[in-house]
Specification:
Length: about 500
């Protein structure tokens, strides 16, 4: 796993490294400049005519140092200084003075010439105000140039915590981030402006963030083997959990099948589907491995018995919003204390009965997409999109639940835990049934004894990696929800074989 700090968190780590560990700021700056130049060369970017655009803070100091290193390599590097002389940080002033003494051209007016690459070192992670005036004009000019574009630490104008665009922003194809990639470089729309992101070690240890649960994190594919439950040689189906799927109203057998099939694919030992009676024949044909129990109306005793049988329950996929569905959800929340995944129609019903969630003894995982989250919290989709991490955290804290807020960058939050941001997956997954598969994967992992947070975070990531496999197989247009399950199976098979 790797951390994705925001600006304030990164500045705290930087200050700790300088003040507590005693690493001089100039040493960090030299390392940063070196890593930027290395990353540019590794990608074969032509630096024969380089323009570094520098502000007056330490990000600008990194830029001056990078221009000096390129000059020492006999490249032609020039600097457009757009900062304020009176506001120069001590380190940036020193780097600027060295560059000038080396004869590197440093000017303040927009040049009338062409470059092979522009390096953005105007604003760093501390920017919190909208960019306007001359700075906005400079960034527009930088973006308009027909050349390669690289950002130092973060593209100027991208909010380091949310990815929001602060008025205007530099559009990089490569962002070389110091120590850790910043959350705003991976959240949309910031990701559009950051391009490829690479974390450059400069002496600031990511371990600094371990005790701060406010710092987000993500997984990479190399982490998968460490996320999965252990499969013991001496085991049986009961070792891997009994799943109850309360899914599928009349005519919605597909949602029941997809979620149950995904739970099996994730490793659950036994799955029982509790569904509308009309769905029995279809489900038994599609998934003979599952137990199928049915209802015509709300049966309190039957549901209680099923909940007592189960180790984990998933409710809501294709459930509908009828009175029967409402009673099934409220009964489940009231009567059980096992892990409970609530998805789809279960969330729409829940939005009218939030007190039931507050008072439930179950360890609840909610999996809303943006519109469902809007109903749960009474805010617009646009408002949630701008504050997705904060919204998920607030919901998790208020209701004592794990919140899986689904979007192109799904967020998983629980109070007291680092918030997970998913960076895997792709737009081929935007198909009906994808959410049913995710709910099933999370449920299947929880059945095997994983904590509700770990099963949610690992489930989201595994689901997304399965989506990447499916896209590689089918392309971005033709992937169906069932292909995601096949993709997940491929991911797990590669783990079994020790493949990347």
């Amino acid at each position: 796993m790797r951390y994705l700090p925001d600006g304030a968190q990164m500045q705290a780590a930087d200050a700790y490294t300088i003040e507590e560990l005693g690493v001089p700021s100039l040493v960090l700056m030299e390392r940063a400049a070196l890593k930027v130049v290395e990353a540019i060369h590794e990608r074969g970017i032509d630096t024969s005519k380089t323009l570094v655009v520098c502000g007056s803070g330490n990000n600008g100091g990194d830029g001056f140092a990078a221009a000096r290193l390129l000059t020492e390599e006999d490249r032609c590097a020039e600097v457009l200084f757009v900062g304020n002389e009176a506001s120069l940080s001590e380190e940036c002033a020193l780097q600027k003075r060295i560059a000038e003494q080396m004869g590197i051209p440093v000017f303040t007016d927009i040049p009338g010439k062409e470059y092979t690459v522009i390096i953005d070192a105007v604003f760093g992670v501390g920017l919190s105000r909208d960019i306007a005036g001359r700075y906005s004009e400079i960034i527009r000019w930088m973006n308009s140039q027909n050349c390669r574009k690289v950002a130092v630490d973060i593209p100027s104008g991208v909010c380091a915590g949310t990815g929001r665009i602060l008025g205007s922003a530099f559009r990089a194809e490569l962002t070389v981030s110091m120590a850790c990639v910043k959350a705003g470089c991976e959240l949309f729309p910031g990701k559009y402006f950051a391009g490829e992101t690479v974390a450059a070690p400069i002496g600031i240890s990511p371990d600094f963030f371990r005790e701060d649960s406010g710092v987000c994190f993500t997984y990479d594919k190399a982490d998968i083997s460490g996320l999965l439950p252990v499969r013991r040689a001496d085991s049986h189906k009961g070792s891997y959990g009994k799943v109850l799927m309360i899914t599928g109203s009349r005519g919605m057998a597909g949602a029941s099948y997809l979620s149950a099939r995904a739970a099996y694919a994730a490793g659950a030992g036994l799955v029982q589907i509790y569904t509308a009676d009309d769905n029995r024949d279809v489900i038994q044909q599609l998934l003979p491995e599952a137990i199928v129990s049915c209802y015509r109306d709300y049966d309190c005793e039957q549901l209680t018995d099923l909940l007592e049988w189960a180790d984990v329950v998933c409710i809501g996929c294709g459930l509908g919003r009828s009175q029967v569905s409402e009673k099934l959800l409220l009964h489940t929340l009231k009567e059980t204390d096992i892990p409970c995944v609530i998805d789809a129609d279960g969330l729409n019903i829940l939005s009218r009965h939030m007190e039931a969630l507050r008072h439930s003894r179950a360890s609840v995982i909610v999996t809303p997409h943006m519109k469902e989250m809007s109903r749960l919290v009474g805010r617009t989709v646009a408002e949630i999109a701008d504050t997705r991490i904060q919204t998920a955290r607030e919901f998790a804290k208020e209701y004592g639940a794990v919140c899986v807020l689904k979007d192109s960058r799904t967020v998983v939050a629980r109070e007291g835990r680092h918030t997970f941001i998913n960076l895997a997956g792709n737009n081929a997954m935007a198909k009906a049934g994808s959410g049913d598969v995710l709910a099933g994967v999370i449920t299947g992992l929880a059945a095997q004894g994983m904590t509700v947070f770990d099963s949610a975070a690992a489930g989201v990531f595994l689901h997304a990696c399965g989506g990447d496999e499916a896209r590689d197989e089918k392309g971005v247009y033709s992937v169906l929800a069932r292909d995601l399950i096949a993709g997940i199976e491929k991911v797990l098979l590669k783990q079994d074989r020790g493949e990347d």
